[in-house]
What does this fold into?
Amino acid sequence: MRRMNNKSRVHARGFSLVELMVALVVGLIVVGAVLALVASIMKSNRQTLQSTRLNQELRATVAVIANDLRRARSVTDPLTSAKTGNPYSDVDTGTASCVIFAYDGAAGGAWHVIRHSGNKIVLQAAAAKPASCTSIPGTPTAFGSDQVAITALTFSPLTTTAVAKKSTRRFDITITGNLIDQDVELSNVSRTMSQTVYVRSIAGN
It folds into this structure.
């Protein structure tokens, strides 16, 4: 009986200190690897979401500009304008990063100015055609959120002559922006969106 008890005691012996230390180190390595993997996945997901947000905001901004510019030169009574001339025939893109145009029923005034200002795109309206892109009084309305910076806006072709302002129908809008983020990798992400707009040609052009 004593011999059996001695053998039981030998087999019931626990882990040694060395074995516990090795197991602890292996466990910490596994946990560390899992945590690093989870952190990497979370960062990758955040970058993907933010990049998608940038794309969506740039696309939405271009769409807003295009939809408004597409109405340029429209008048309530085309027949009368055919005789007297279209008062809104000019579409002026002679100034970099800016377009001046007008149409009947435009909010805030017939003439609209869309331009790049700082890190935003802004819209201003006036009852009469402005002399320049920055000569309109009042506070401009900004497009987009505070998490995206617009770095460039271009309209082509440039209508620098009176004939071009009245006759050009196709305009290409190009916008470039990047994220505003504390993560350097995200703030360095830049995207460019383009859209072509065909402006109607009505009476007097």
Remarks:
- The helical segments are 2-11, 17-69, 78-84, 162-167, 184-187.
